[in-house]
Amino acid sequence: MTAGASLRGAVDAVVIGASAGGIEALSVLLPALRAGTPAAVFIVIHLPRDRQSLLAGIFAKKCALKVREARDKEPAEPGTVYFAPNNYHLLVDEGPQLALSVDELVHHSRPSIDVLFESAAEVYRERLLGVILTGANEDGAQGLATVHDLGGITVAQDPASAQAPQMLLSAIRLRRPDYVLPLEDIATVLATLG
């Protein structure tokens, strides 16, 4: 896929995972989503578990789509960006609908990128775009591999452009993503969804 390739009509949902440096990376990506983008977008970003997340409010001002914190059992609506609430795993169930869980930490994280990616891959399969961004642990590597194995499209940020490349290197080692792109090119691809 090149920055000019279009995914219009090919994707029903996008999952994005990030950790260290993720807020800055999302500040490049989320403004690229155009009004009318038909995909639902689910995001896990690692934050300290003892603080309330302000991400939905911050990014609502930067994104043309509706942005909100995910709520348990709500339907997954197209054209909406959902952030995992702090200290809850975010999952996608049949319907599709969202589910929140306080199950054990995964890679020292709750919410876990792996949990979101694996559950969304089961529901959306080849209609899912998985994007892994900067981060300092291994969370997300197995999840991105599951997206790939179930037919979805996988994208990793180029580790050379990441604030913390460990998460990306882990994902690339486990199962080579379909595409490894700098942030600006990932933003261009996201713009083709709408």
| CATH evolutionary superfamily | Methylesterase CheB, C-terminal domain
CATH architecture title: 3-Layer(aba) Sandwich
Structural class: alpha/beta
| Number of distinct beta strands | 9
User: What form results from the Cα inertia axes?
Assistant: globular
H/E topology pattern: EHEHEEEEHEHEHEH
Q: What's the tally of helices?
A: 6
Which CATH class?
Alpha Beta
Spatial arrangement of strands, main beta sheet: 3-4-2-1-7-8-9
CATH topology type: Rossmann fold
Overall mean pLDDT stands at 94
Assembly status: single chain
Q: How many discrete structural domains?
A: 1
Rg calc: 14 Å
Q: In this structure, how is the largest beta sheet organized?
A: 7 strands, parallel
The N- to C-terminal Cα distance equals 17 Å
Describe the structure.
51% of the residues are buried. With 194 residues, the protein is of the alpha/beta class. The protein contains 6 helices and 9 strands; from the N terminus they run E-H-E-H-E-E-E-E-H-E-H-E-H-E-H. Helix 3 (113-124) runs parallel beside helix 4 (141-149) and helix 4 (141-149) runs parallel beside helix 5 (166-174). 27% of the residues lie in helices and 22% in strands. The protein has a single domain (13-191), classed as Rossmann fold (3-Layer(aba) Sandwich), CATH 3.40.50. The mean pLDDT is 94.
